[in-house]
Amino acid sequence: MGVMGFASASVFSSKLAAFLVLGLVLNLGLVCNGGKTSTFVRKVEKTVDMPLESDVFKAPHGYNAPEQVHITQGDQLGKAVIVSWVTVDEPGSSKVLYWSANSKKKTAVGKFYTYKYYNYSSPYIHHATVRNLEYNTKYYYEVGIGHTKRQFWFVTPPAVGPDVPYTFGLIGDLGQSFDSNKTLTHYELNPQKGQTVLFVGDLSYADNYPNHDNHRWDSWGRFVERSVAYQPWIWTAGNHELDFAPEIGETKPFKPYTHRYHVPYKASGSTSPLWYSIKRASSHIIVLSSYSAYGKYTPQYKWLEEELPKVNRNETPWLIVLVHSPWYNSYNYHYMEGETMRVMFEAWFVKYKVDVVFAGHVHAYERSERVSNIAYNVINGICSPVKDQSAPVYITIGDGGNLEGLATNMTEPQPAYSAYREASFGHATFDIKNRTHAYYSWHRNQDGYAVQADSMWFFNRYYHPVDDSTSAQS
Ligand SMILES: [Fe+2]
């Protein structure tokens, strides 16, 4: 009995030791790779676009009723709003009527535009800028004056300042599939209540239809109105905004996008709506274009070179960059497509201590460590990303739910620069608390509205530049 007891005890203890060693090895593997690949298993269903007769695409009733209403920031400081809408029957009025609880009704007069794309003629696209608004104020506005009036509202941001709390939503690559609708609904119902959406490009995916059927630009405008008529979305151009189709005679890139979505680029000294900046609350937001020239001497390069020194961290502590094509991406989709832009601009981002770069394009989710890869000079062989506390965190949030489906195929093993990755649809929020702290969280569509699948406390790179990686915090 005694001998047997001893034997089984020793088998047990050697099994335990093996288990512990295995656990240690697995753990080491995780540490070496630096990141986490989520084990979440989502239901794999085909992603399809919602049919045109869906409720979400319904045009409003009434003669020449304004549709596809959307707003964005209209100046550098958040005291102006660009109101845009579309009329179908005739041009109608380009006036916006607006008022707050303690101001009388005022009028802003805009202009309307049309464009042709192959065999498509656009409806009348109106843009009017409402200026000199009070900060932190709810305004009501009306469009469709003279025909069918429709009323909406928005809240202006607080005055720009270093400790102004503000919550941004993050959505990318949205499209108009059933999954897109889930993403938007999740964003709307998120208890963290985003006040402005930072949109990282690829809006309608109309270009996936024969001859880039621009009716899908119209349906997308009607789909997102329920959010973007009430809070500004800050636009970034993606590859699906190019609509470059020489085979059908369409050789002017970005034609539908730039007619439909106006941005306040001149206010930041930009010469193109494809790159610009705004200040909002405690953040300075720089929007770049992956699909415009950015080499040395180009307009975008020169603009960014002059823009970065202008960022005043005493006024706007948080420096955020939006760009479509990610620089750090460990999926096997669009791998290295952002590389040439990284080579041009990454050293500046480190020098000016950008807090975070949000990108889309890859239809999945990924968050990087703070890394940089700027030492390489062709001959020195120093060509691997290194941990760098002056570098931004790179977040790919191209998982809005478009019809092209998810990117699921990942580089294995997970590279050290990748902190967390998961092939699910979703959105994120970036919740600035003060000049030192911001709370970031990512929400996958399959979960309840309040669930955070990934999160991180951001420490501001200018005011609190200590290690804020999730491994350092846990
Ligand atoms: Fe894209």
Automatic annotation (TrEMBL):
According to the entry, every stretch annotated as the Purple acid phosphatase N-terminal domain falls at 66-156
The reply to whether Hydrolase figures as a keyword in the UniProt entry is yes
Q: Name any one Pfam family assigned in the record.
A: Metallophos_C
Q: Which UniProt keywords apply?
A: Glycoprotein, Hydrolase, Iron, Metal-binding, Signal, Zinc
Q: Does this UniProt record's set of keywords contain Cytoplasm?
A: no
* Gene Ontology MF terms in the entry: acid phosphatase activity; metal ion binding
**InterPro entries per UniProt:** Calcineurin-like_PHP, Metallo-depent_PP-like, MPP_PAP, PAPs-like, PAPs_C, PAPs_N, Purple_acid_Pase-like_N
Q: Which SUPFAM superfamilies match?
A: Metallo-dependent phosphatases, Purple acid phosphatase, N-terminal domain
Q: Where is the signal peptide?
A: 1-34
Write out the similarity annotation. Belongs to the metallophosphoesterase superfamily. Purple acid phosphatase family.
Q: What is this protein called?
A: Purple acid phosphatase
Q: Which organism is it from?
A: Rosa chinensis
